[in-house]
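Write out a sequence, fold above all:
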Amino acid sequence: AMGPIHPLDPLTREEIGAAAPAAKAHLLAQGVAQADLRFESVELQEPSEEVKRAIIRGDQAELLSAAPRVLVVQCYNVAEPAGVWRCLVTLQDTAVVQEVKAEYIPGVQPMIQLEEFGQVETAVKEDPRYIAALAKRGVTDMSMVCVGQWSCGSWHEKGEEGRHISHTFSWTRMGDDHDNYYAHPIEGVNAVVDIRTMEVLRVDDYCADDPVPVPKTQINYEPRFQSGIRKDLRPIAITQPEGVSFSLEGYHLQWHEWSLRVGFNAREGLTLHDIRYSGRPILYRASIAEMCVPYGSNHPAHARKNVFDIGEYGLGKLANSLQLGCDCVGEIRYLDAYLADINGEVTLRKNVICIHEEDAGMLWKHWDYRTDHTEVRRARKLVVSSISTVGNYEYGSYWYFHLDGTIQFEMKATGIINTVACAPGCGDAFGVEVAPGVVGQIHQHIFCARLDLAVDGPLNSVVECNTVQEPAASNPYSNAFRVEQQVLQVETGRSAEAAAQRYWKFVSTEGRNHVGAPTGYELHPESAVTNFLAPRGPSGARANFLQRQLWVTPFHPAERFPAGDFLNGSSGADGVGRYIEAGRSVVDEDLVAWHVFGLHHQPRPEDFPVQSCIMTGFKLMPSGFFSQNPCLDIPASAPAKACSNGTHA
């Protein structure tokens, strides 16, 4: 039998199994739900602020296990063009429904569901207008055609108003079920589908009079298509003969001086909670709360490509079941997750989270030439990861915890670039021809981390640090430069400034170090990306969080997503740009930092037919959090069996 559920633990099978039917029954009883009610998501509502404070203070009293769990069940009627029901289901003792409250949110659209992908494809492939457009291009075998279900923002096109729209793109395989269809884009044909009714509203053919030929050359990445597989790479074995150094009890993970709780939900996927070092709190919650993928083409067939993969689809719903030896190497522990499907049924996602240790090279070293004495230590890190496939791309989310107190996030982007067709040698300025007639368009992958701060306690402030050259009057040798620090007073968005080596420090209201300075953590914007969307354009208006690299707001339980709660067809009125309009103080408050970072991607031929990982991320580094290097007690590594001069020792 499981003990009491911690307020931060992910949902159990029993909880989803109780809450989803309770929400449906409540809406049916009210006469507002239809029999074909669809479920967008079932997730845990964050605990009350009272419970949050207790957790940060380390007060794990009975208050915590006794706190009822509230599940947020979001569902929608297929027959209605828009609107979502948000039901709050309070559970006591895991599966006993105590209360259901329902709120109707008009005019919004849910996330696109995995189960709807196939339905959209089927509807498009059965449409006579679509079949005719493909026939013009010599494509007649519909069994080989693949239709991509893209979200498409809010473009006020006639007939789309107030509907849940997918603007689709198409490719075809050539003669083999395993052929890489991204090598054969069908250019200029975009079927527009109402996702709720599965009605094909129209089929836009942007080059009907002069169709772009479909590239026919097969370009594949699976082993069966390669002329040979190399045999000169010998195995690298990663072993921990004495076992792992971390412990995992339920979702509570401990390693070295680190302690944290692992979470997971349908939208953000992997979430981390109550992150501590030596028992001292640093972050109450950390997640990647949104991502935006704007494409740069001015062609009408492609201008709507501006996808919010988290808010419009959900990384959790699209998470992979990870495989030992492929996705994760070494001594691995996996965690499963329970989610609700489109019918509100519980689904088990096996091995969606991977936990392991990695060697991380040299930690520190010094040779004292006077005594000819050397000290060197090896670094290692704890890795908590999850990988999701969103259409053509894979996103690997990796949180690293380092021995020295650094928290690092790395996003690894791989998969297959989105392709379009051109006449061979006749591409345009907005992409690169990666193979004859196959173009990868310029685009970006911009992420937003939501960091609920708790550096040495619940109250924090943010200090902006800029390096300046000392003015000539006090700079007689023309060499002086220093860091100027400014405490941010009210909620705001701030830009990275490479010329000033700008970084931000999150400092504790209560904590002081051995020189009397506030304890803190600093964030260096290592992967700042310039936003090229016009702020008032149809894509830019929905993604105003891209305009800054750091947003700082006081914590509010309803402010969870930087581009707002409902992204499909959104106007851009919601999100962090709206949150900061309140002008609240951010001095000595319970704060949330929103860090925006990403990848600027002009594709290369080397990115095709499958893209090797490209990385982006950030680090949170202790800054006066410790009184000295916390890694002086790390033991020296025992001399291992190794190779020297090409011989096995």
Summary: The first helix runs from residue 13 to 29. The longest strand covers residues 346-368. Residues 20 and 439 are 44 Å apart (CA to CA). The mean pLDDT is 95.
